[in-house]
Design goal:
The complex is a heterodimer of chains A (453) and B (300).
Chain A lengths: L1 H37 L6 E8 L2 H16 L3 E8 L1 H13 L7 E4 L3 H7 L7 H6 L10 H6 L1 E2 L2 E2 L1 E7 L1 E6 H6 L10 H11 L5 E4 L10 H10 L16 H17 L9 H9 L3 E7 L8 H5 L1 E5 L12 E6 L7 H11 L2 H11 L16 H20 L23 H16 L5 H17 L4
Parallel strand pairs in A: 1-2, 1-3, 8-9
Antiparallel strand pairs in A: 3-11, 4-5, 6-11, 7-9, 7-10
Helix pairs in contact in A: 16-17
Chain B lengths: L1 H16 L3 H21 L2 E2 L9 E2 L3 H8 L1 H33 L5 H13 L2 H12 L6 H6 L9 H4 L1 H26 L3 H9 L4 H28 L4 H6 L11 H10 L4 H35 L1
Antiparallel strand pairs in B: 1-2
Helix pairs in contact in B: 2-14, 3-14, 4-9, 4-11, 5-9, 9-11, 10-11, 11-14, 13-14
Chain lengths: 453, 300
């Protein structure tokens, strides 16, 4: 008996040391890999770009060889990650000043915040060195959103606003027509008119997350006259405007929205729309670039629906930013310059097809005849929506923050996620709008308090 | 004479210890240094996004554990999830193990099938549940239930905790089954036969003979299982992302949210420390049960 008792811990230890050996082996392999990656030639430099996993970045990855054939001294390593993981990794990297990346894709949310903390490099001096870059060609709304104290802190790779996409054939079958600048009331009545057991009226994001559900929902709140905080950083989610907007959104989803709205984000709605399961879709302007089959043939495009405030579309741009901790800034800029230049847009068009061109960054893109032919239907709506989106004046009443579909403060990632979770619970039918707004107001008030000094 | 015996045994002891030492040091460094650092950070208010926020905060992070509603919800969710998953999967595992222990045709094949859920990666399994089975538009379950008017029910969001429990039960039933089956197979069939001769019906035989025999195995399965279920993270991440609201946010997921959505390293460390303490408590019971089984085995 004692013998057994003694032996059993041995078994434990033995199996553990086996796993330790396995772990050691893994570490060794990892070290070997990173060694191989780091070991470049004497003069050549390797820069690392952390990129968000989207179709435009996949295209960039394909075309990197074109860059390298011109710049043999710079090797570009692109690490692609899904949006949430990219944000975590990049945030940790800059906050800890570890210098793992020389470039990363960041959004309009991060740029002003990080520029203020000096986590990212001011790119205006670099832009000034290259006359061919033509800074004035950048779409004004985007350029404004990527600037801090009138200096450009990131260069736009891809930009988007939001618009209403709809199937002309489905609407026509029910005798409905969509105006170019619809109101939300018009959209709701059309959605209910075309809603049937086989085709739902409209797809709206319900998936929790500040970058998912809350993006379209906040644009609805904005145009209904709501805002997150008043000028003194008092949370205002307990106002009638918020209640009206959230009630409207949830009711529209319930009466004419897609089933399973709580799990529907951009991708899910795109699938539903492409498969003819929904007649309308209010989402990012880039959605239209991904239409196939009937959806590509029969779609019409309208500006973001409104109620009180006009031009309610959101604004977002994935942009290349350079961490201050990078030790290869010149090489990094050489690449960022190339990837956001006019020539790159033409390169994508000629090599991969004009539908692949990253939209929403440069005015000149929209005057290219080839691009107009490929993106005809939605090019104007996209360009105009982006041009009219103003991150500083997105609400009816003035606000102390910047951002259209987000509040540009550090706490908003967590606040937005928590609030959108409460709304998801409403969409699922597990609580009322009032209950959700009480909790949301408390969460927002706690955040607002830290800014009241 | 005595001296040399002692030195021999000491040398013997070192001969056993020495080869283990590198592994021990490696494990010690890799688990204890991060743990000590975590304890250290848990006394600081430190938010990665706030410059100059690294300040000593005493027990603030720990008092917040008691006062914060989100944390209480998370602890409650963890308890509910763990108890439900363990209870249901033990009962199901027991039933399946009894079936597989009897003379059924195709036993080997069935056993392999039954183990499959445990071998599938948790993330992949959760994705299959969410998209292939439960998706209200394309899912199998809504399709099968549509004749009953339940065609477009959004199961994941309407019944979030029940969904997570169902997926975890699906994963852990095979584990319970394996452990209980091992217990059942050590049962001497002659004892059961003797019981039948003495006039015991199957239910009595099960209650009086089989159950006491496999009881330590059930305990072991339940304790080992709860060690893992307490730490459930992947399926929650894939299925519900802790929502809707905070309905399925358990302690590990809350820790993730605090650390990687809020970047509050100090607060997250405090949650981590408490989670480790709870896990150690459960683990102590698990190991004690494990050894008691070996003792019983040895006695026989």
């Amino acid at each position: 008996m004692t013998d057994r008792k003694l032996r059993s811990p041995y078994h434990l230890v033995r199996s553990r040391s086996l796993s330790v050996i396995a772990g050691l082996a893994l570490v060794a392999v990892g070290a070997a890999c990173s060694g191989a990656g780091g070991g470049g030639g004497g003069t050549s430099q390797t820069i690392t770009l952390a990129a968000v996993d989207n179709p435009q970045m996949a295209d960039l990855k394909q075309l990197v060889s074109e860059f390298q054939s011109k710049h043999s001294d710079i090797t570009v390593k692109i690490v692609t990650l899904p949006e949430d993981q990219l944000r975590q990794q990049v945030t940790q990297d800059v906050a800890a000043n570890s210098g793992r990346f020389d470039l990363f894709t960041i959004g309009t949310y991060e740029v002003p915040l990080w520029a203020k903390k000096k986590w990212i490099e001011n790119l205006s001096p670099y832009v000034a060195k290259d006359p061919a870059y033509d800074e004035s060609d950048l779409i004004p709304g985007i350029k404004g959103a990527l600037s801090f104290e009138n200096n450009l802190y990131a260069v736009p790779f891809y930009g988007e606003s939001s618009m209403l996409m709809y199937r002309k054939d489905f609407l026509a079958a029910k005798g409905q027509t969509m105006p170019d600048h619809p109101t939300w009331d018009q959209v709701a009545s059309i959605a209910k008119a075309v809603n049937s057991s086989s085709v739902n009226g409209i797809c709206l994001r319900g998936l929790p997350g500040w970058g998912e559900q809350l993006a379209p929902l906040t644009t609805v709140v904005n145009t209904f006259g709501g805002r997150w905080f008043d000028q003194n950083w008092n949370a205002t989610l307990n106002t009638p405007q918020w209640k009206d907007a959230v009630t409207f959104y949830v009711n529209l989803l319930k009466s004419a929205g897609e089933p399973g709205a709580g799990n529907a984000g951009f991708t899910e709605c795109l699938n539903a729309y492409n498969n003819g399961k929904v007649a309308m879709w209010y989402d990012a302007t880039v959605g239209a670039s991904n239409f196939t089959g009937d959806a590509a043939k029969n779609s019409g495009y309208a500006y973001a629906p409104t109620k009180v405030k006009d031009w309610s579309g959101w604004l977002w741009a994935w942009s290349l930013g350079m961490p201050s901790s990078s030790k290869k800034k010149d090489a990094a800029w050489t690449f960022a310059d190339w990837a956001t230049s006019k020539d790159y847009i033409k390169l994508v068009g000629s090599k991969l097809g004009w539908a692949h061109v990253p939209p929403g960054t440069r005015t000149s893109t929209y005057s290219l005849p080839e691009y107009q032919a490929a993106a005809g239907g939605f090019a104007t709506v996209t360009l105009q929506s982006i041009a009219h989106a103003d991150v500083n004046h997105s609400t009816v009443d003035p606000v102390p923050y910047i951002g259209v579909q987000y509040v540009d403060i550090d706490e908003f990632q967590q606040l937005g996620d928590q609030v959108s979770q409460e709304f998801a619970k409403v969409i699922a039918g597990n609580q009322t709008v009032d209950q959700a707004l009480v909790k949301a107001q408390a969460l927002a008030a706690a955040v607002g308090k830290t800014y009241q000094h | 004479m005595r001296d040399s015996a002692a030195s021999v045994s000491r040398r013997d002891a070192w001969a056993r210890r020495l080869p283990l030492l590198p592994a021990f040091i490696y494990v010690f460094l890799l688990t204890q240094i991060p743990f000590v650092l975590t304890i250290y950070y848990s006394f600081f208010s430190w938010n990665l996004l706030k410059e100059g926020s690294f300040k000593f905060a005493g027990l603030d992070n720990y008092t917040r554990l008691i006062t914060n509603e989100s944390i209480r919800t998370a602890i409650l969710n963890t308890v509910v999830l763990t108890l439900a998953v363990i209870a249901i999967s033990v009962v199901l595992g027991m039933a399946v193990a009894m079936l597989l222990n009897s003379e059924v045709w195709g036993k080997g094949f069935m056993r392999t099938l039954m183990i499959a859920p445990f071998l599938i990666m948790p993330t992949a399994g959760a994705l299959i549940w969410k998209d292939t089975l439960l998706n209200p538009l394309f899912g199998l379950l809504p399709y099968l239930l549509s004749p009953f008017g339940l065609g477009r029910v959004d199961w994941v969001n309407r019944f979030p905790m029940a969904t997570v429990v169902a997926v975890e039960v699906w994963r852990w039933t095979p584990f319970m089954m394996l452990i209980i089956l091992a217990g059942l197979q050590s049962q001497n069939p002659e004892v059961l036969e003797a019981a039948r001769v003495d006039g015991a019906n199957p239910l009595q035989a099960f209650r009086r003979i089989t159950l006491p025999l496999v009881r330590p195995f059930i305990e072991l399965g339940a304790l080992l299982g709860s060690l893992f279920v307490v730490q459930t993270y992947d399926s929650i991440f894939m299925l519900t992302y802790g929502g809707p609201g905070e309905d399925t946010t358990n302690v590990p997921f809350l820790l993730y949210l605090v650390a990687f959505q809020g970047y509050s390293i100090g607060q997250a460390s405090a949650i981590g420390v408490v989670a480790v303490i709870i896990t150690i408590l459960v683990a102590t019971f698990a190991l004690r049960t494990l050894f008691s089984i070996f003792q019983v085995e040895a006695r026989r």
